[in-house]
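User:
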Amino acid sequence: MKKILTLVCASVIFFLSACSHEEDVKNDYMFEEYKKGDEIVLKNINGGATKTLIRTDKGFVVKGEENKVLMIDFFGTFCTPCKEEALNLSNLWRNNSDKFIIIGLTHFEDVSDDAVKKFANDYGAYYFLSNSSQNDRIIAQILKDINYQSMEQLPFKVVIKNGNYQNLSDYWNNNTPVNFYLGKIPTQIIQDDLNRIYKEK
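Assistant: Predicted structure:
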């Protein structure tokens, strides 16, 4: 009985810490895949220079910052867990900025740049945020790259080093290795994963 109660509680907590979308993930696979060497220029809603994603064999790197670990975060301005974790992600980026980049991609919504800027100001999301028309294609490519077959939920993150997706700790399953973060994840778990990834060759 105790095990069942624990499972129910964990399920409720997970539901509250992720925004789901009913769309079948297979629909996202109907897109034109990026080819190695393709470049995608993204504008930062928070101002400053653009960033250019370059397609690698198995992932992406940021042009001119290929030596940095890249986190790509799928988020929505409507998403409560995305709002709740935004300031923590900003602090994570600031504390690791010499070797780490976060690029947030709006997903599941069609909103103005002003709406995304308001989200950033209201919730402290001061890292790189893209509201590009290319976001959904980038996200579809990432989901195909990692062979993600479940229902999409926000926030959703991947971490890429040297163009390769990294193993991450599954917070919802005893920290077993997965290649994505699903839902709102404690910042310390992400930091611990980053510290390990920095050391690995």
